[in-house]
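Database export, one record per block. Field names are fixed; values are copied verbatim from the stored entry.
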Amino acid sequence: MEYHFFAMMSRMKYIERWALMRNSISENISEHSLEVSMIAHVLAVIGNKRFHKELNAEKAALIAIYHDATEIITGDMPTPIKYYNRDMIDAFKKIEDNAAGQLLSMLPDDIREEYESIFFATESEQYLWKLVKAADKISALIKCIEEGKAGNLEFTQAQQTIEESIHKLDLPEVNVFMTEFLPSYKKTLDELK
């Protein structure tokens, strides 16, 4: 029997992000997911080291790797459309859940159960999913910063909106990242050395 799950995952590199925006630097969901994974991992590590939590940092990274995988089927829905109103949010959640189910059905039965908690949040891992969502927003903010550094003003309003949404999360791990790590993204390579 053949299973198509990983062949489908390899198509993440073909799904471009920020479709409605003029980009100086293109970004696909494969690249984005790697960045979100690294950030989600460190957010969980910060939670453990600084706030004495018992978070599974590796699981946070794994959830983040696959957090946009459903876009292989749905495409990248622009944020203003996806979050237009409660009806759109609910409808798109159903579409994403259906797409996740389709992707999971491409795995053998004995392996599928290991992936279900990567695509669907369990009660015990709700906080990890919040950290992944925060990492997703931070990655979007980083994109805005990078575009601004390239002289592209197209992302100015998005940057302000995303910064506000990150502050509203009120997660201590995120506050640490924003203070200790985010400022470096505004520096040049020479300044980082």
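Remark 1: The chain has a mean pLDDT of 94.
Remark 2: The two ends are 51 Å apart (CA to CA).
End of record.
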